[in-house]
Amino acid sequence: MVVFFATLGALLVVTAGLWLTWPDAGRIKAITRAERPSDDYYLANDHGGHVDHHVIYFGTDSAVTDHLRRADVLLLGNSRLMFAARPRVLDGFFESRGLRYYAMGFGFREMDRFPLAIIEKFDLTPKLVIVNADGFFRDDISDFARTVMKDDAFGAWQLRHEAEAGHEVRRGLHQVVPNFIDLFGRPGFPWRREVVIYRSRTNGTWQLSPWDLGQHPVPPRDIEEPRPGRDEIRAAQRFKDALARRGARLVLTYVPTPRPMGGSPAAIARSLGAPLIAVHPAELKSEDGDHLDEPSAIAWTEAFVRELGALIP
């Protein structure tokens, strides 16, 4: 027994030393630096699981469902929208117009059918729906959403609370003892940067913690190219028609990214007869080559609401 505890103590000391001195440790210590912005935020994603699909679709958090039902404006899209939409800008803009908003975007490159299923399930009646058109109109759902929709309310509740508990344990434990797979990787499982995301119950926006500054410039895109396919146009029209039956107006936007996924946002907007807000402030940057970093996201949101103000008196 003495040998066991002596060995364990020695390993803990060596491990802690590696954790504090390892040259690249900073990039993998995201979990130890993560800070929940406030009690309004719940865990949406970390290595322990991605849970906000379940939380929103199954209504496992009554406050989330209540704010969603009361929203006058919904913002829809994939993770690029969720990185870009900054509440410090959106809050004041919509509040000044007497409107409540909710960012109902999702990760996993989520498409149109999953948010539409939520709108129909909870009988949502927003006045305005703003969609990041980049790869959204597919008349399809992600593989992850397909799995989620086969789950049940108890499974969603269990997943969320297990993820929250595991997250808090890891935050404390990894201050001293890192996961060796995080440090060194293992065969077939290359190292991946951890992303810790919290989500607001009140307005649905994401907050990354930590959120590293971008190193990769985001070049402007020709929003007239490439030409969207017929299936994309048909899916967009079906989505607009479904919203119109609920009395909602559709506005399209485009969040800048180095790797666009869909057809021309301008062409889709013209085919629908819908307004398009496509802004690209100077010097946008991305940390991962896919999403805006926080300063760029704030700049984009500020430019976006200036254009949106012309559509919402």
Q: Mean pLDDT, rounded to whole units?
A: 89
Strand content: 5-15%
Instruction: Tell me the structural class.
Output: alpha/beta
Largest sheet: 5 strands, parallel
Strand order of the largest sheet: 4-3-5-9-10
User: Mind telling me which CATH architecture this is?
Assistant: 3-Layer(aba) Sandwich
What is the string of helix and strand elements? HHHEEHHEHHEHEHHHEEEHEHEEH
Rg? 21 Å
How many domains comprise the coordinates? Answer: 1
Net shape = globular
Instruction: Kindly state the percentage of residues in helix.
Output: 40-55%
Gap from first CA to last CA:
74 Å
Overall strand count: 11
| Count of runs of 4 or more consecutive helical residues | 14
CATH topology value: Rossmann fold
Poorly predicted regions are 23-27
The top level CATH class name = Alpha Beta
CATH homolog superfamily:
SGNH hydrolase
Question: How would you sum up this structure in a few lines?
Answer:
It is built from 14 helices and 11 strands.
How does this structure look, described?
- This protein has helices at residues 2-21, 25-28, 30-33, 52-58, 62-70, 79-84, 87-95, 113-121, 143-149, 153-173, 180-184, 230-244, 265-272, 294-308, and strands at residues 41-46, 49-50, 73-76, 101-103, 128-132, 197-200, 206-208, 216-217, 249-253, 276-277, 285-286.
- α4 packs antiparallel against α10 and α7 (87-95) packs parallel to α14.
- It has a single domain (33-308), classed as SGNH hydrolase (Rossmann fold, 3-Layer(aba) Sandwich).
- It is an alpha/beta fold.
- Strands 4-3-5-9-10 form a 5-stranded parallel sheet, sandwiched between helices. The protein has a 4-stranded antiparallel sheet with strand order 2-1-6-7. A two-stranded antiparallel sheet has the order 8-11.
- The chain is built from 14 helices and 11 strands.
- The longest helix has 21 residues, at 153-173.
- β9 (249-253), α13 and β10 form a beta-alpha-beta unit.
- It is 44% helix and 12% strand.
